[in-house]
Specification:
The protein has 492 residues and is of the alpha/beta class. It is 49% helix and 13% strand. The strands form 2 sheets. It has a 5-stranded mixed β-sheet, sandwiched between helices. Helix 2 packs parallel to helix 3 and helix 9 packs parallel to helix 10. The longest helix is centred in the last third of the chain and has 36 residues. It starts with 9 loop residues before the first strand and ends in a 7-residue tail after the last helix. 50% of the residues are buried. Bound molecules: 5'-O-[(R)-(carboxyoxy)(hydroxy)phosphoryl]adenosine (KG4) and zinc ion (ZN). 5'-O-[(R)-(carboxyoxy)(hydroxy)phosphoryl]adenosine binds next to helix 5 and helix 6. The site of zinc ion (ZN) has 5 residues, from helix 4.
């Protein structure tokens, strides 16, 4: 626990589930930093998020985002009491980058790791008192982005999260993006449709409302489907579209948006009333949509449901929500996650934390290891390495860190001695050979400075060569005398 603040841990949260690389830092319920870097520009030409591109972008952006977050929070790494990370749901490769980095940081700082549920994170932003947020439970949460469309009933943020429904095909944001492309609007399509729909007529066309028909209520009352709507708009546009007619584009965009907003808000209110929960939290990029917000406000007011919509920076994917969820888990005395925890892309969990660790800690952030913890720690690390995380392997580098930096230095020292002794009748041969041996064994160590290794090897080989020449020269008179004595050579 950082000094001067015994009750509120400083938690760093890492979020990489989709295309936003984000690091947030909180002290308890106070937001210290929230840095977001988006790889959206890289996906623009593909018209949607490309998972491999997103994963690579996280890898490149994360170190800088983390440095900036620490700078914004005005703290150093050592001030961090715990590390939290999104473990799912999300894009598998993208999640792995964040989880790997979080493991590395937790391991390097010897701090607990909390692998958390991204969806619950969206709701946890309402714990940020410094941002004027206020979380009241139980609540219904409608989380709508490019990657997910989920309706949750949260009775307890840590232990009782019920997924009432989800999309059975496209996410709502995905539908916005795809329909925008059909209409010739750039990616990301959500804000574009929102913009052009402002001058359109939302009742111009009656597009389908997925999974709202009475006959599917028994099975899909709280589930969503946007694929049929998307196809319907695309077919209509194919037959009747006029890309150069801005009013037509606006009318289609507004009608499509109306269909999405109608379904989302209708199902959310239905859940609130059916479960007797008079609260609704919105989260995800689509919650930025002006019509979704307006209709949610209108319907919540009519139904007597209290609506909470975080500001945009906390509504879209961000590290702050992960950090504050980590802080809440600590406050509630949850054990940290095991270092072997893996990313779970299709996570459907009733809890905020993924696989809490079996290790019970005397205090979640006291950093003190119990006797025998080393062994357990090493086992966890082995599991972590053999698990899913190919990008960040903190444990391997740590295991080697004690020996590896010494080897190149020994190689250079032996090389210098070898070279210095070489003129003395080739006496440098032994240290020079040692320089080469140490140099080669250091070559594949990740922590070894390769410049030093090369210097050691060069000195070693030079020492061997010079020693060989000088030794041969020194030995020549002796050899001559020997050869003369056995009659192979005539005396001078
Ligand atoms: O939460 P988010 O920033 O990132 C992830 O998907 O992870 O959400 C992005 C999605 C995109 O599909 C984008 O088109 C949509 O949210 N979006 C919107 C609006 N702003 C962003 N959709 C409708 N209206 C908006 N104003
Ligand atoms: Zn999200």
């Amino acid at each position: 626990m950082s000094e001067g603040n015994a009750v509120s841990p400083v938690v760093l949260g890492i979020e990489t589930s989709c295309d936003e690389t984000s690091v947030g830092i909180v002290r308890g319920d106070q937001l210290l930093a929230n840095v977001v870097s988006s790889s959206m520009d890289l996906h623009r030409r593909f018209g949607g998020v490309v998972p491999e591109v997103a994963a690579r972008a996280h890898l490149e952006a994360l170190p800088q985002v983390m440095t900036q977050a620490l700078g914004d929070a005005n703290i150093s790494r050592e001030d961090i009491d715990a590390v939290a990370v999104t473990a799912g749901p999300g894009l598998a490769g993208a999640l792995m980058v964040g989880v790997g980095a979080a493991k590395g940081l937790a391991q390097a700082l010897n701090r607990p790791l909390y692998a958390v549920n991204h969806l619950v994170g969206h709701v946890a932003v309402d714990l940020l008192r410094s941002e004027g947020r206020h979380l009241e439970l139980p609540t219904i949460a409608l989380l709508v982005s490019g990657g997910h469309t989920s309706l949750l009933l949260i009775r307890d943020l840590v232990h009782d999260v019920e997924v009432l429904g989800d999309t059975i095909d496209d996410a709502a944001g995905e539908a916005f993006d795809k329909v925008a492309r059909v209409l010739g609007l750039p990616y990301p399509g959500g804000p574009e449709i929102d913009r052009v729909a402002a001058t359109g007529n939302p009742s111009a066309y009656d597009f389908p409302r997925g999974l709202t028909q009475p006959r599917v209520q028994a099975t899909h009352r709280y589930n969503f489907s946007f694929s049929g709507l998307k196809t319907s708009v695309a077919r209509w546009w194919e037959a009747n579209g006029e890309p150069d007619n801005p009013q037509l584009v606006a009318d289609v965009a507004a009608s499509f948006q109306e269909s999405v907003a109608d379904v989302l808000t209708k199902k959310a209110i239905d859940a609130a009333l059916a479960y007797g929960v008079p609260r609704l939290v919105l989260g995800g990029g689509v919650a930025a949509n002006s019509r979704v917000r307006a209709l949610a406000e209108e319907r919540c007011r009519e139904a007597g449901v209290e609506l909470s919509v975080p500001p945009l920076s906390l509504c879209t994917d961000n590290g702050a929500m992960i950090a504050v969820l980590g802080a809440e888990l600590i406050r509630r005395g949850q054990a940290p996650s095991a270092l072997s925890v893996s990313a779970v892309s299709t996570l459907v969990s009733r809890t905020a934390q993924i696989e809490p660790g079996t290790r019970s800690t005397s205090g979640p952030t006291d950093g003190a290891e119990a006797p025998g913890a080393d062994v357990e720690h090493t086992e966890q690390l082995d599991e972590a390495i053999t698990g899913l995380q190919p990008t960040v392997r903190p444990s391997t580098t740590r295991a080697r860190s004690k020996k590896a930096p010494l080897l190149p230095a020994i190689a250079v020292s032996c090389g210098v001695v070898g070279l210095a002794l070489a003129p003395a009748f080739g006496a440098g041969i032994v240290p020079a050979i040692l320089a080469v041996v140490f140099g080669h064994s250091a070559k594949h160590r990740p922590l070894a400075r390769q410049g030093t290794v090369v210097t050691g090897l060069v000195l070693g080989y030079l020492g061997i060569a010079l020693s060989a020449v000088m030794g041969t020269l020194a030995a020549t008179p002796v050899i001559r005398a020997l050869l003369v004595s056995v009659g192979f050579l005539l005396p001078d």
